[in-house]
Design brief:
By secondary structure, the chain is mostly helical. It is 74% helix and 4% strand. It folds into two domains: 72 residues, Orthogonal Bundle (Arc Repressor Mutant, subunit A); 143 residues, Up-down Bundle (Four Helix Bundle (Hemerythrin (Met), subunit A)). It comes from Duganella phyllosphaerae.
């Protein structure tokens, strides 16, 4: 019995991962209906683990399950998105102040590699990796804070805003360049030991992204909270 339960859970997790990638990449847009029969056939699984995957993604804020209607890709209003970024702008600088003094040479090697990858993907216009690289850079910068509960909250906030950030970055060359410049400055300030300056820049960086994203979403929606 335990083996069967574990197998079902593993299949559900795999289905959740596949759906999460589709949502994050924009392949499944907000408001898109998630037909369980079609998805189960696509993944080659039964509807039981698929339902578990949808419930998991609902808990992450990526899917909304409506009684008698089924599951849809969840969308966020402008106010909800602004709140998520506001929370990031408060929590991430706090973590950075704890983490930056303890970043190691290996951490800086990873950060430099991410910045180099980011530059390559920018020149190649490979938009699908921009959100991933952005999240990885923030993760490394904050990784030495030793504040697991706050870090878990931030990880959830990054996940919930990632698909919107990808959309905004993919259509705004200026935002990409600004993000790249600010990332390079962040790493430089941490490397120089200017923790206060790095935390201040990180807060402005997140606030810039929030404002750009709000403008972008308003320009692509008929009205706040409605998908265009």
């Amino acid at each position: 019995m335990k083996q069967t339960s574990l197998a079902v859970t593993t299949v559900a997790d795999q289905a959740a991962d596949a759906l999460r990638r589709k949502i994050m990449s924009g392949e499944l847009a907000e408001g898109c209906s998630l037909r369980q029969d079609a998805l189960a056939a696509e993944f080659g699984i039964s509807r039981i683990p698929l339902r578990e995957a949808l419930v998991q993604l609902e808990g992450e804020g990526l899917v909304r399950i409506v009684a008698h209607k089924g599951a849809v890709v969840a969308g966020l209003s402008i106010d909800e998105i602004s709140e998520l970024f506001m929370l990031r702008s408060v929590l991430e600088p706090l973590l950075l102040k704890k983490s930056a003094p303890k970043l190691t040479p290996d951490d800086y090697a990873r950060l430099d590699a991410i910045l180099a990858d980011y530059k390559v993907e920018l020149l190649a216009q490979h938009t699908t990796r921009w959100g991933e690289l952005n999240t990885r850079l923030h993760d490394v910068l904050l990784s030495r804070a030793d504040q697991p509960r706050t870090a878990a909250i931030v990880a959830t906030l990054l996940q919930q805003t990632d698909r919107y950030t990808r959309m905004q970055l993919s259509l705004s060359a200026d935002s990409i360049r600004q993000a790249q410049q600010e990332h390079e400055e962040l790493v430089g300030l941490c490397r120089a030991g200017d923790v206060r300056g790095a935390a201040s820049l990180l807060k402005r960086h997140i606030e810039h992204a929030s404002r750009d994203l709000e403008r972008f979403i308003l320009s692509t929606r008929r009205a706040p909270g409605q998908a265009a």
